[in-house]
Write a structure and sequence with these properties.
Strand order of the largest sheet: 1-2
Strand content: under 5%
Number of strands: 2
Distance between the termini: 10 Å
Radius of gyration: 20 Å
Order of helices and strands: HHHHEEH
């Protein structure tokens, strides 16, 4: 897992965009508070835009979080197990992640295409084509699939080396 290739650049760039979007929600909400309380003209679009941004942040940031090892773990249990058992559990969790990510990314891609062809809209204050959102579900899970595959390969190499430290 050393070196930075194209995949790492893509994941890091998506995380950066997620950070920019998250920062923009703070600015949007600040604008809404200012407009509502001081000018007495609330903006009707801010809630929808904030919801859309938070949705995007989750799928843009998840692959980066997995790459950095930031997902939830049970350290209390893991620290008490042998190195080989930890490696095997890492392989198992990566394999489950591969399976789930493959299924969700496949169905996300299929549904993205169906909504694109059907012109399905998300109708709220702002109407947006639904396939935009579904594409980000596909993209996020597809990148999670690749990262889980990388982690599985890393655990497999460690297992074959007899559980040596990195």
């Amino acid at each position: 897992m050393k070196g930075k290739g194209f995949f790492d650049w893509v994941v890091d760039s998506m995380a950066f965009v997620a950070g920019v979007l998250l920062t923009s929600t703070v600015l949007i909400e600040f604008l809404e508070i200012f407009m509502r309380h001081f000018i007495r003209k609330p903006q009707v679009w801010t809630v929808d835009v904030t919801e859309y941004i938070l949705f995007l942040v989750a799928f843009l940031g998840a692959p980066w979080l997995l790459k950095k090892g930031g997902h939830v773990g049970v350290d209390l249990v893991v620290e008490r197990l042998s190195r080989k058992t930890n490696i095997l559990l890492g392989m198992l969790s990566s394999a489950i992640g591969i399976f789930v990510s493959a299924v969700v990314s496949w169905f996300g891609l299929v549904e993205t295409w169906n909504c694109y062809q059907g012109g399905v809209l998300v109708i709220k204050t702002l109407s947006v084509q639904k396939y935009y959102f579904l594409f980000f579900i596909f993209l996020g899970y597809f990148l999670l699939l690749i990262e889980f595959g990388r982690q599985f390969a890393h655990h497999l190499v460690r297992f074959r080396e007899g559980g040596k430290a990195d």
